[in-house]
Design brief:
about 290 residues, alpha/beta, 9-stranded mixed sheet, two-stranded antiparallel ribbon, 7 helices, about 30% helix
Length: about 290
Protein backbone atom coordinates (compact mmCIF):
# COMPACT_ATOMS: atom_id res chain seq x y z
CA UNK A 1 0.00 0.00 0.00
CA UNK A 2 1.27 3.50 -0.80
CA UNK A 3 2.21 5.81 2.05
CA UNK A 4 -0.79 7.71 3.40
CA UNK A 5 -0.09 11.46 3.58
CA UNK A 6 -0.35 12.95 7.03
CA UNK A 7 -1.49 16.51 7.78
CA UNK A 8 0.56 19.50 8.81
CA UNK A 9 0.75 19.08 12.56
CA UNK A 10 1.05 22.59 13.90
CA UNK A 11 0.18 26.11 12.86
CA UNK A 12 2.87 27.56 15.14
CA UNK A 13 5.52 29.83 13.68
CA UNK A 14 9.15 28.77 13.77
CA UNK A 15 9.84 31.46 16.38
CA UNK A 16 7.07 30.23 18.67
CA UNK A 17 8.17 26.62 18.24
CA UNK A 18 11.75 27.53 19.05
CA UNK A 19 10.55 29.06 22.30
CA UNK A 20 8.55 25.98 23.15
CA UNK A 21 11.52 23.74 22.48
CA UNK A 22 13.75 25.90 24.60
CA UNK A 23 11.30 25.57 27.46
CA UNK A 24 10.92 21.82 27.19
CA UNK A 25 14.63 21.34 26.72
CA UNK A 26 15.56 22.75 30.14
CA UNK A 27 17.48 20.01 31.93
CA UNK A 28 18.15 17.96 28.81
CA UNK A 29 20.69 19.84 26.71
CA UNK A 30 23.99 18.16 26.03
CA UNK A 31 26.13 21.00 27.37
CA UNK A 32 24.78 22.14 30.71
CA UNK A 33 22.17 19.65 31.87
CA UNK A 34 22.67 17.33 34.86
CA UNK A 35 23.10 13.87 33.41
CA UNK A 36 22.26 10.37 34.54
CA UNK A 37 24.67 7.47 34.48
CA UNK A 38 23.82 6.68 30.86
CA UNK A 39 24.07 10.32 29.73
CA UNK A 40 20.31 10.88 29.86
CA UNK A 41 18.54 13.75 31.52
CA UNK A 42 17.00 12.90 34.90
CA UNK A 43 13.28 12.11 34.91
CA UNK A 44 10.80 14.50 36.50
CA UNK A 45 7.54 12.63 36.07
CA UNK A 46 4.26 14.19 37.05
CA UNK A 47 2.39 12.62 39.98
CA UNK A 48 0.57 9.41 39.15
CA UNK A 49 -3.19 9.56 38.67
CA UNK A 50 -6.02 7.35 37.48
CA UNK A 51 -5.77 6.58 33.78
CA UNK A 52 -9.12 7.11 32.05
CA UNK A 53 -9.43 5.80 28.48
CA UNK A 54 -11.82 7.49 26.05
CA UNK A 55 -15.33 6.19 25.55
CA UNK A 56 -16.07 4.36 22.29
CA UNK A 57 -17.96 6.29 19.61
CA UNK A 58 -17.63 9.67 21.31
CA UNK A 59 -17.99 12.73 19.08
CA UNK A 60 -14.50 13.75 17.97
CA UNK A 61 -12.61 16.65 16.45
CA UNK A 62 -8.99 16.67 15.23
CA UNK A 63 -7.39 20.06 15.88
CA UNK A 64 -3.63 19.45 15.69
CA UNK A 65 -3.29 22.19 13.05
CA UNK A 66 -4.62 24.85 15.45
CA UNK A 67 -7.25 25.08 18.19
CA UNK A 68 -10.76 26.47 17.85
CA UNK A 69 -14.07 26.15 19.69
CA UNK A 70 -15.18 22.51 19.28
CA UNK A 71 -18.45 22.06 17.39
CA UNK A 72 -21.62 20.92 19.12
CA UNK A 73 -21.66 17.19 19.80
CA UNK A 74 -17.89 16.87 20.24
CA UNK A 75 -16.86 15.09 23.41
CA UNK A 76 -13.18 14.47 22.64
CA UNK A 77 -10.59 16.58 20.86
CA UNK A 78 -6.94 16.11 19.88
CA UNK A 79 -4.66 19.18 19.98
CA UNK A 80 -0.94 19.86 19.64
CA UNK A 81 0.99 19.65 22.91
CA UNK A 82 1.98 23.33 22.62
CA UNK A 83 -1.60 24.57 23.13
CA UNK A 84 -4.07 24.26 25.99
CA UNK A 85 -6.84 21.62 26.16
CA UNK A 86 -10.48 22.42 25.52
CA UNK A 87 -12.53 23.03 28.64
CA UNK A 88 -14.97 20.32 29.63
CA UNK A 89 -13.94 17.75 27.01
CA UNK A 90 -11.79 14.63 26.85
CA UNK A 91 -8.50 16.06 25.58
CA UNK A 92 -5.80 14.16 23.68
CA UNK A 93 -2.35 15.72 23.48
CA UNK A 94 -0.52 15.30 20.17
CA UNK A 95 3.17 14.40 20.50
CA UNK A 96 5.43 13.54 17.56
CA UNK A 97 7.19 10.78 19.49
CA UNK A 98 9.16 8.87 16.85
CA UNK A 99 10.28 11.65 14.49
CA UNK A 100 11.52 15.25 14.75
CA UNK A 101 9.27 18.11 13.79
CA UNK A 102 10.79 19.95 10.78
CA UNK A 103 11.38 23.14 12.77
CA UNK A 104 13.03 21.12 15.55
CA UNK A 105 15.72 19.41 13.47
CA UNK A 106 18.32 22.07 14.27
CA UNK A 107 17.62 21.69 18.00
CA UNK A 108 18.16 17.94 17.81
CA UNK A 109 21.32 18.43 15.73
CA UNK A 110 22.73 20.84 18.32
CA UNK A 111 21.72 19.05 21.50
CA UNK A 112 21.36 15.36 20.63
CA UNK A 113 22.88 14.67 17.19
CA UNK A 114 23.49 11.01 18.03
CA UNK A 115 19.77 10.48 18.67
CA UNK A 116 18.88 11.13 15.03
CA UNK A 117 18.89 8.09 12.74
CA UNK A 118 21.62 8.21 10.09
CA UNK A 119 22.59 6.18 7.06
CA UNK A 120 26.01 4.70 6.30
CA UNK A 121 27.33 8.05 5.05
CA UNK A 122 26.16 9.89 8.19
CA UNK A 123 23.23 11.64 6.54
CA UNK A 124 19.91 11.89 8.36
CA UNK A 125 17.28 9.30 7.52
CA UNK A 126 14.25 11.39 6.62
CA UNK A 127 10.53 11.06 6.31
CA UNK A 128 10.69 12.70 2.89
CA UNK A 129 6.96 13.40 2.69
CA UNK A 130 7.08 15.76 5.64
CA UNK A 131 10.74 16.68 6.05
CA UNK A 132 11.03 14.94 9.42
CA UNK A 133 14.21 13.29 10.64
CA UNK A 134 13.66 9.90 12.23
CA UNK A 135 14.72 9.44 15.84
CA UNK A 136 17.24 6.65 16.42
CA UNK A 137 15.48 4.13 18.65
CA UNK A 138 17.68 1.23 17.55
CA UNK A 139 19.37 0.54 20.92
CA UNK A 140 18.13 0.31 24.52
CA UNK A 141 20.41 3.15 25.63
CA UNK A 142 19.14 5.52 22.94
CA UNK A 143 15.54 4.55 23.63
CA UNK A 144 16.00 5.40 27.31
CA UNK A 145 17.51 8.79 26.49
CA UNK A 146 14.78 9.60 23.99
CA UNK A 147 12.10 8.47 26.41
CA UNK A 148 13.47 10.97 28.94
CA UNK A 149 13.09 13.80 26.43
CA UNK A 150 9.70 12.80 25.03
CA UNK A 151 8.63 11.93 28.57
CA UNK A 152 9.04 15.59 29.56
CA UNK A 153 6.58 16.50 26.82
CA UNK A 154 4.16 13.85 28.05
CA UNK A 155 4.43 15.17 31.60
CA UNK A 156 3.72 18.63 30.23
CA UNK A 157 0.51 17.33 28.68
CA UNK A 158 -0.58 16.03 32.09
CA UNK A 159 0.33 19.31 33.79
CA UNK A 160 -1.71 21.25 31.23
CA UNK A 161 -4.80 19.15 31.98
CA UNK A 162 -4.95 16.66 29.13
CA UNK A 163 -6.44 13.23 29.78
CA UNK A 164 -4.51 11.36 27.09
CA UNK A 165 -1.58 11.54 24.70
CA UNK A 166 -1.37 10.58 21.02
CA UNK A 167 2.11 9.26 20.20
CA UNK A 168 2.58 9.78 16.47
CA UNK A 169 4.62 7.68 14.04
CA UNK A 170 4.63 4.20 15.56
CA UNK A 171 5.20 3.15 11.94
CA UNK A 172 8.49 5.07 11.59
CA UNK A 173 10.30 1.80 10.86
CA UNK A 174 8.56 1.74 7.48
CA UNK A 175 10.52 4.88 6.51
CA UNK A 176 13.89 3.85 7.99
CA UNK A 177 15.38 2.06 4.96
CA UNK A 178 15.58 -1.11 7.05
CA UNK A 179 17.51 0.48 9.93
CA UNK A 180 14.57 0.12 12.31
CA UNK A 181 12.19 -2.78 12.88
CA UNK A 182 8.71 -3.08 14.37
CA UNK A 183 10.40 -4.45 17.49
CA UNK A 184 12.40 -1.23 17.87
CA UNK A 185 9.26 0.89 17.58
CA UNK A 186 7.33 -1.29 20.01
CA UNK A 187 10.17 -1.31 22.53
CA UNK A 188 10.25 2.49 22.51
CA UNK A 189 6.47 2.62 22.62
CA UNK A 190 6.51 0.56 25.82
CA UNK A 191 8.65 3.22 27.51
CA UNK A 192 6.20 5.91 26.39
CA UNK A 193 3.22 3.89 27.59
CA UNK A 194 4.80 3.51 31.03
CA UNK A 195 5.62 7.23 31.16
CA UNK A 196 2.10 8.27 30.16
CA UNK A 197 0.47 5.94 32.66
CA UNK A 198 2.80 7.17 35.41
CA UNK A 199 1.60 10.70 34.62
CA UNK A 200 -2.04 9.61 34.81
CA UNK A 201 -2.62 9.77 31.05
CA UNK A 202 -4.13 7.25 28.68
CA UNK A 203 -2.04 6.82 25.54
CA UNK A 204 -3.11 6.15 21.98
CA UNK A 205 -1.36 4.18 19.27
CA UNK A 206 -1.08 6.28 16.11
CA UNK A 207 -1.47 4.34 12.84
CA UNK A 208 0.32 0.99 12.14
CA UNK A 209 -2.73 -1.31 11.88
CA UNK A 210 -0.45 -4.34 11.55
CA UNK A 211 0.79 -3.61 15.09
CA UNK A 212 -2.63 -2.97 16.66
CA UNK A 213 -2.85 -6.25 18.55
CA UNK A 214 0.73 -5.99 19.78
CA UNK A 215 0.24 -2.33 20.66
CA UNK A 216 -2.75 -3.16 22.80
CA UNK A 217 -0.80 -5.93 24.53
CA UNK A 218 2.01 -3.59 25.53
CA UNK A 219 -0.41 -1.07 27.02
CA UNK A 220 -1.84 1.37 24.49
CA UNK A 221 -5.36 2.32 25.60
CA UNK A 222 -6.89 3.42 22.29
CA UNK A 223 -5.95 4.11 18.67
CA UNK A 224 -5.82 7.13 16.38
CA UNK A 225 -6.07 5.96 12.77
CA UNK A 226 -5.63 8.12 9.71
CA UNK A 227 -7.55 7.04 6.61
CA UNK A 228 -8.36 3.54 7.80
CA UNK A 229 -11.69 3.84 6.00
CA UNK A 230 -9.99 4.86 2.77
CA UNK A 231 -7.64 1.86 2.96
CA UNK A 232 -9.97 -0.66 4.66
CA UNK A 233 -7.77 -0.87 7.76
CA UNK A 234 -10.17 0.03 10.59
CA UNK A 235 -10.92 -3.56 11.58
CA UNK A 236 -7.63 -4.38 13.34
CA UNK A 237 -7.89 -1.23 15.44
CA UNK A 238 -11.53 -1.83 16.35
CA UNK A 239 -10.83 -5.40 17.42
CA UNK A 240 -7.69 -4.63 19.39
CA UNK A 241 -9.03 -1.57 21.19
CA UNK A 242 -12.70 -2.52 21.76
CA UNK A 243 -13.88 0.24 19.42
CA UNK A 244 -11.90 2.96 21.23
CA UNK A 245 -10.69 4.28 17.88
CA UNK A 246 -10.53 7.83 16.53
CA UNK A 247 -10.67 7.77 12.73
CA UNK A 248 -9.52 10.77 10.67
CA UNK A 249 -10.31 10.75 6.97
CA UNK A 250 -9.08 13.34 4.45
CA UNK A 251 -11.16 12.37 1.41
CA UNK A 252 -14.93 12.09 1.01
CA UNK A 253 -14.61 8.51 -0.27
CA UNK A 254 -12.75 7.57 2.89
CA UNK A 255 -15.39 9.18 5.09
CA UNK A 256 -18.15 7.35 3.23
CA UNK A 257 -16.33 4.03 3.63
CA UNK A 258 -15.60 4.58 7.31
CA UNK A 259 -19.13 5.72 8.07
CA UNK A 260 -20.70 2.91 6.07
CA UNK A 261 -18.95 0.20 8.07
CA UNK A 262 -17.89 1.84 11.32
CA UNK A 263 -20.09 4.91 11.75
CA UNK A 264 -22.11 3.33 14.56
CA UNK A 265 -19.13 2.09 16.56
CA UNK A 266 -16.02 4.23 16.00
CA UNK A 267 -15.39 8.00 16.29
CA UNK A 268 -15.08 9.21 12.69
CA UNK A 269 -14.31 12.69 11.36
CA UNK A 270 -13.38 14.15 7.96
CA UNK A 271 -10.77 16.94 8.10
CA UNK A 272 -8.89 18.91 5.48
CA UNK A 273 -5.32 17.58 5.02
CA UNK A 274 -3.82 20.66 6.71
CA UNK A 275 -6.30 20.40 9.64
CA UNK A 276 -6.93 24.15 9.48
CA UNK A 277 -8.78 25.85 12.35
CA UNK A 278 -12.41 26.82 11.83
CA UNK A 279 -12.67 30.18 10.09
CA UNK A 280 -9.52 29.64 8.00
CA UNK A 281 -9.79 29.27 4.25
CA UNK A 282 -9.86 25.57 3.34
CA UNK A 283 -11.16 24.35 6.70
CA UNK A 284 -13.21 21.17 6.32
CA UNK A 285 -14.94 19.14 8.99
CA UNK A 286 -17.69 16.56 8.57
CA UNK A 287 -18.85 13.52 10.48
CA UNK A 288 -21.03 10.51 9.77
Amino acid sequence: MARVPRPVRSALSALTLAGVLATTAVGCTSSDAPQGADGSAPSSQAPSGKVVPPEPHVGFDYQIGGPYTPPSGVGAVSRDRTVKPAAGLYNICYVNAFQAQPDATAWWQTNHPDLLLRNTTGDLVMDEDWGEALLDISTPAKRERLAAIVGEWIDGCATDGYQAVEADNLDSYERSDGRLTPEHDLAFARLLVDRAHAAGLAIGQKNAPDLAKRGRSLGFDFAVAEECGQYEECGPYATAFDNRVFVIEYETAGLDAACGTWGDTLSVVLRDPDVRPAGKRGHVRRTC
